[in-house]
Amino acid sequence: MNIVLLSGGSGKRLWPLSNEVRSKQFLKLLCDKEGKHESMVQRVYRQITDAGIHARIVVATSASQVEAIRGQLPKDVDIVVEPERRNTFPAIVLAASYLASRKKIDLEETVIVLPVDPYVDVAYFECFRKMDEEVQKGTADMVLMGITPSYPSEKYGYILQGEQGVVTGFKEKPDEETAARLIQEGALWNAGVFAFRLNYLMEIADQYVQNRDFDDITKHYGDLKKDSFDYEVVEKTKSLAVVPYSGEWKDIGTWNTLTEEMEEESVGYAVTGEDCENTHVINELSIPVVALGTKNIVVAASPDGILVSDKHKSSYIKPYVENITGRPMYEERRWGEYKVYDYIQYKDGTKSLTKHITVHAGMAQDYQLHHYKDEVITVVNGSGEFVIDGCLMKLSYGDTICIRRGQKHTMRAIEDLQMICVQIGEEISEEDVEVYEWRW
Amino acid sequence: MNIVLLSGGSGKRLWPLSNEVRSKQFLKLLCDKEGKHESMVQRVYRQITDAGIHARIVVATSASQVEAIRGQLPKDVDIVVEPERRNTFPAIVLAASYLASRKKIDLEETVIVLPVDPYVDVAYFECFRKMDEEVQKGTADMVLMGITPSYPSEKYGYILQGEQGVVTGFKEKPDEETAARLIQEGALWNAGVFAFRLNYLMEIADQYVQNRDFDDITKHYGDLKKDSFDYEVVEKTKSLAVVPYSGEWKDIGTWNTLTEEMEEESVGYAVTGEDCENTHVINELSIPVVALGTKNIVVAASPDGILVSDKHKSSYIKPYVENITGRPMYEERRWGEYKVYDYIQYKDGTKSLTKHITVHAGMAQDYQLHHYKDEVITVVNGSGEFVIDGCLMKLSYGDTICIRRGQKHTMRAIEDLQMICVQIGEEISEEDVEVYEWRW
Predict the structure, then answer these.
(1) Cα–Cα distance for residue pair A50/B376, rounded to 1 Å
(2) What is the rounded distance in angstroms from the CA atom of residue A380 to the CA atom of residue A415?
(3) Which secondary-structure segment (H or E) carries B71?
(4) Nearest residue to A197 (alpha-carbon basis) of A105, A115, A118
(5) Shortest Cα distance from A396 to chain B (angstroms)?
(6) Does residue B317 belong to the interface with chain A, where contact is any CB pair within 8 Å?
(7) Are B296 and A292 in contact (CB under 8 A)?
(8) B308 and A294 in contact by Cβ < 8 A?
(9) CB atoms within 10 A of CB A38
(10) Cα–Cα distance, B122 to B44 (Å, whole number)
(11) Is A344 in Cβ contact with B418 (below 8 Å)?
(12) Chain B interface includes A314 (CB < 8 A)
């Protein structure tokens, strides 16, 4: 079995913890069985293992999420990077072609596609076995997962089913009355989980791109129709079956729904008065958050900002934060992470940015240069090696290095390397970087 | 007329904005007539001027507040520093001896003593003229200000008066019934404002210290009884009069009372949803605070921490923040200010601290050395001069200087000088400083 996880959308609904580079699925606010924090992505990966499913896992995502996924999932998970954002149909075709041409998967094998962030029971993944079985038995060209509805929701899509799990149609966002009738007739919610033989999709892809080769599809990605997989594939498939799942199934994409699933009332440095009611504090800063006498409130603090919101109102956050521009203040990278302390723009047009950087032991940054900024780096903990314009030197506690614009540089951590980096220049951005090759 | 302002107490009731070195009276949260922010100290100083009073002003305080007062009040205000904290009687004697022996004030002149942070109308200060008149006429040895009570409070002291403003007694914190009766009999609240001839107090001081000289009293400060001025002087004075004041008079020492007097709903970078009610945001950080759907809430954020509190509950803050130890993260100094970005303690026992420092144009730091920490300073804006172990050099945008422990150093700003300072060492504290003399 092959699993394709769709890791999409940079959203601001969990601002200030989610931003352009850190989507909600990477926030470590949930707890695993040992009480260790885990993100939604990590939870899904763990649950697949817990369900006893041995599958090849591919994550389809955009370039901006690669470093975060690399940092959170094991190395044997493959990542397929969309050359541009083009909706789910092109993304799934790209992942399928990766399995077919790069991984040389037997075209008869089952592929199961799902979003990377459903909040579900392990039983959800156990359901995958049944879906695989149906695909391999040839019950249908495509097998969907259907969630047993708990109320006549107006915001979901409904899968209508006939005898023995045969799908007879779809109904998108019906009114409440219609929804109630559909449920009585056995309709299920569409969870966006699809199972099919690899070959089935590759044949559809043939209509758009001449060659099924991964490199070819990457190159001609723009030729694939910018549409959803539901519309472009599922609804056009004649032979469809559905497998029901009746456990927990939730989108925890707002502070209101997310805090309901948190095991702790606070994460990070927080002090809450005993007169607080239904108050959650999520604090990623190193300074304390003190909450007194608050009711139904979520407080979330990160280097990007501080949110104090009534829980129900928290789902209406978007318009208030979309005008808060500014660079991301925290990023997880392949090699470690950085946290911006402050970014200042001066009247004379110059700018400065101060950040704390951690490079994990054994990891190295890219060999790079900047055109518009100088950097002063002070090692505050750990040790490593540093290269500037081809010269290698040791790096340890107390060392300060000045890197002028135009100088190529990289560093590698021996022990976890913590540094304070002061950048100054007329233009300070993460995009001001030119990468070169360096062999350690 | 001479005015002694008592600037006391480092309190945590306005945490996280007030801390050990920044008392509530220095927070610039009020507005002057032009809408410019001012602190309680600055407001009192401005109101004295607005009342048309030309007086010599002395602030009696502890060493920890000197830099903040210097930064907020004009240079012609004298500061008398208590050698140790010993309650109001010794502090007022010290200030009086300063006026007598250092300023050579005529001993017949009036001294008016008051707390530095009452929230009052200008009329309060106009009342000083009448108090001065009564003192000079010889109506009584001591003239008090009495606040016209607005309700039978149980938490104030009452001044009982007979005919023509003669004080007949005091009643400390009566029950409500007694308070109501006292008010009917013409009693007034004791505002802690006292007027007397300089000589009157100096004669009392003679009982404790042989010499009235300021240096002598400073040296023998421990011999002065550690007691309040009310108890040690006022209550023992036989001839007392009172002058009434009936305008606004408030202690704005809690978030609840302070926000009532703020003209703006938010100070600093704040976004509040239109569904917020009675919500105040005070943000001293450079990242945004977003408040949505909150009611009767105060949010205060500073480099020391973040408070989210129901307004009424905010007066019970003390026990929740007194265990939050840690160094002050923001300080105003004589030469400028600093803001700590982060203070990290590592497993191997080393520590690092990163701060942003501003030295105002024309100002210079002390010539100093540290025993336990090294510093790396990067100039991010402005220009100045720097001295290290006796060598003078220019300092400008982009310069980085490394100061090892044991090296004497100082700097002076030509234009406002902004720097990022990274400190590393086994022990990082503001107390690790040895000051030397340097002549620019």
Answers:
(1) 50
(2) 12
(3) helix B66-72
(4) A105
(5) 12
(6) yes
(7) no
(8) yes
(9) 19
(10) 9
(11) yes
(12) yes
* Residue in B closest to A296 by C-alpha: B294
* pLDDT tens per residue across all 440 residues of chain A: 999 999 987 678 899 998 777 888 999 888 888 888 999 999 999 999 999 999 999 999 988 888 889 889 999 999 999 999 889 999 999 999 999 999 999 999 999 999 998 999 999 999 999 999 999 999 999 999 999 999 999 989 999 999 989 999 999 999 999 999 999 999 999 999 999 999 999 999 988 888 778 999 999 999 899 999 999 999 999 999 999 999 999 888 889 999 998 888 999 999 999 999 999 999 999 899 999 999 999 999 999 999 999 999 998 998 999 878 777 788 888 899 999 999 999 989 999 999 999 999 999 999 999 999 999 999 999 999 999 999 999 999 999 999 999 999 999 999 999 999 999 999 998 889 999 999 98
Is the CB of A240 inside 8 Å of chain B's CB atoms?
no
Q: Which two tokens stand for residue B313?
A: 């509950």
C-alpha pair distances (Å), A385 with each of A83, A169, B94, B161: 34, 61, 60, 81
Closest CA in chain A for residue B304:
A287
Find the CB nearest B381 among A291, A346, A378: A346
Is the Cβ pair B306, A286 closer than 8 Å?
Answer: no
Dihedrals φ, ψ of A198, to 5°? -50, -40
Mutate one of A14, A279, A306 to test the B interface: name it (highest B CB count within 10 A): A306
Residue of A433, A417, A328, A325 whose CA lies nearest to A370: A433
Task: List the structure tokens of B88.
Answer: 């109001």
Structure tokens at B258: 């302070």
Q: Are B167 and B159 in contact (CB under 8 A)?
A: yes
Which residues are CB-neighbours of A336 under 8 A, at least 6 positions away? Answer: A357, A358, A359, A360, A363, A413, A416, A417
Whole-number Cα distances in Å, A272 to A30, A278, A308, B365: 20, 11, 14, 40
Q: What is the β-pairing status of strands B2-6 and B110-115?
A: parallel
